Structure formats: C-alpha cells, structure tokens
Amino acid sequence: MASVLSATGLALVSVLASGVAAEANDIGDCILSGEVGSIKLQPVNEGVLTVETALPNPGWWNGDTPEQITTGFEYCLAANVAHRAGLKEIRLVIASFPAMIANVNPGKDMAMATISITAERQKVMQFTAPYFNSDIGILVKKGTAVDAAAMKTFRVGVLQGSTGAKYVADEVKPAELREYPENPAILAALMAGQIDAAVNDTAILLGLASKSNGALEVVGQYSTGETYGSILPKDSPNKEAIDQAIEDMRKDGTLDKMASTYLSDIWGADPTKVPYLKP
C-alpha cells in the first residue's frame, strides 16, 4: 500500500478494509456498530470515505504514518461513519494542522485532528456535531513546579492556529509565547529547554506525555468547555447524515466504548484528575 503525494502536497493513503464479515465491514481493527446503510453519504471519491488529519496524535490515530494506523478514537469514528454508510474503505489525507484549520482542501469528506469547535471558526467553516469534550492542559518536564503565577513567567509553546494559542495569549499572558506548526516541534523545544511549558488540549498532551518515557507530565489544565468536531468541506451534502451517525454513536454507547478502549490506556491518566488552574 503505497503513499501518494498529491499536487497540493498532501499525502494520500487508502486504508482498505481487511475483509468483509457476514454482516459488517471490517475497517482496520476498529470496534464497529450500527446498521450498514443506515446513513447515506455522497463521498467526494466514489466508494470511499476520505478523511484529512494531522499526525502524530496518539490515542486518536494510533501510528506515526497512515500505513500503521488501524485504531484510534478518531480513526475508528471515521470507520464507523463509513461502516454505517456501507463504505468499505477509508482514504487518509495527511496535512498540517494550520492547513486543516484553513480548510483549503475540497477533496475530503471530513477533517479530524482533535479540532475544537469555536464560534469564530463556525463563522467560516462547517462542523459536525461534537463528539468529545476537552479542556486545555499544561505539559512540562517532570518535576517542574507550576502554578498560575509561574505560568506568567514562563516561555510557553503553543500550536499555531489552535484554540490553546488564543487562550494563552488572551488569558494566561506568559512572559513569552512561541507558536509552532506541529506538536513534534513543540515537544522538541520543550525537551531542549527552549520553552518552559507547552499548552494544548489536555487530551492531546496526556497522549504525548504517555510516550515520553516519564520525561514529561501534564501538571494542570484550564477550564474552557471545549468540544471536538469534524470540519466538513464548504457546502458539504453530508452534514446531516454524519451528525446522525455521531448522535447514534453517542446514544448507543459507541463513543464511550471507543474512549475507554483507545484513549484511557494510552493516556495512562484520568483527565478529570488533572488539577485546574485559573489563568
């Protein structure tokens, strides 16, 4: 299964169903539920669900390359949407987070990368129904003392274009704010001592901390009431159907089951136990 680079510089990879069970599609190693054909989609590429994301994002997309990914909360959410639409294949489109937020790629059905739904973003792009709640966390080297006062003296790294970047600039107001295009660049800066803390969604940071061999820890978070949703292309005909699939997964327990299966073990921590700070 080869990776293909498109003219826009986005990596395209088709993730084909490994087989077809008697009554369901098998996509990756996902937990699938619901009735095949219960929703109707008009995919941009016939017969497949094309999904844009940014890597790495452990727990949400388990693998560092598209070829490695067979599980993860958002991957399997997409798999369930495809399954319920009677599609047997997911095509992954890899982009940077800023490019995803710019929503410049019309060749997708959905874009998911733990993207927060905000009123500002809703003015210029269309989101699905929310599928996850998340606040904003603080990641530091293990042993770093952190409180509200210390954060104002810190050099803080954030993801360019993220809600965390805006929140830190407007509310926390640290001594220095540095923006990075990708999470690996933030981690490299933190490990090199170029920043004192990284701020991003608590759910994302717990996943990154769990893969640091104990070098990093999430020591606090800010309450923002954020929810994640999928960005849809402009004038997508699929919003109602995808929203229905998400709401059905909420009602039948699929979202909760995916969270406990794909997120809890990777995080190695309960996000509700991370203490809250005031900015």
TrEMBL record:
Keywords: Signal. It comes from Metarhizobium album. Pfam families: SBP_bac_3. Residues 48-265 form the Ionotropic glutamate receptor C-terminal domain. This is Amino acid ABC transporter substrate-binding protein. The keyword Signal applies. It comes from the Bacteria. The lineage of its organism: Bacteria, Pseudomonadati, Pseudomonadota, Alphaproteobacteria, Hyphomicrobiales. Residues 48-271 form the Solute-binding protein family 3/N-terminal domain.
